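OP here, attaching both records as promised.
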Amino acid sequence: MANDKAKVDEKINMHDVAADWFFQQYYHSETRPYHTLYHDYTKTLMNLAGADGVLADKERQWILGNLAAKGGDEKMYNFFKTYMPSKEDLEKIIKEKPGFTEVVSRSTIFDAFIAASADNELHKDERDAIYRLGHTMGLEDTLLQQIEDMAAREKSHRLQVLNLVFPQGLQHACDTAIVDYKNN
């Protein structure tokens, strides 16, 4: 029973709880990457999403949310709030960290398609830039197309679920439900 009490008295880090949940939910894994990997992953992702020369605010916000959900810390978050993507940064990561590049290329390309369409549109320039950088990372067109299709399907599926469970939208559901709490 002492162990149970110790667990109850232990301070819970909600940031870690959220990151653990995220990796379990989306990657079906209890393994979280080493904290130091988040920095280069996020830098790579920002460079991919901004490869068309523009990193829109919604794209940056999606990437910052992704960083926070995966367990990135406040220092990293603040760094990437103002980080400006550069071709040189991405080329440096690809050249100096080939093992990292190999194992994260598919997931960063996937996340880049999602981030680049955070404004509800994947522009041709964004798509072309992601493909170019995917080639630089050693990925072929067939694989890039599969990743792009999966990203589009995931986004579409999520919207279908939301439309099913909140047919009048989440805002309407929240506004309607809160009335019960205001009246009590």
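Record two, same layout:
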Amino acid sequence: MVGGTTFAKTICSICYEDLKPIVEDIQAISICGHVFHELCLQQWFEYCSNAKKCTCPVCKQLCSANNANRLYFQSVGDSNDMVLTQKPINCEKDPEELCRELKRLETKVSGLTSVLDRQGKELKEVNEELCSCKEQAKTEAALKNEALKQRTSMQQLLHLKSQELDKSTLECMKLQERIWAWLKSLQHSNWFLIWISMKRRF
């Protein structure tokens, strides 16, 4: 209770704006339980990731974006409360509230822009990696085709050499047969000469 009449407001310790769980996205860090606007916490973790050290904005306990969980609330009050919660701000009566709301919206826009930029960078990296994979696949396909061509060429050359070897083997066999026939003929001639020589002696 504040002043005995009103309840203290819950605020986000990052942007110091009111937490409105019925109409805003709220996240809590599971390790310590501290609660923040979702966009504020996303921006905080992005800032921490650049510093390479993620901690809770309140208690400075080490944590990460994986420890942030969205909180879901149910309203069981009067439906008029929701209308009052979501009613438009009267600029003439409460300019300070308008400034706070503007600041909160600017924070949301900044957070969304940051998330969009990060996703754009990630998409660009994925596209670059995809192009690299396509080029690598294209190169591998070309190398495979070249290897197949070389294999076909080697098979054709091997077949040609095999035919030449068979032809040479056949020629060698024919030549060997001619040599044997010549040797037989020469042997018969020698026996005939010996017989003639022996006949003259007698």
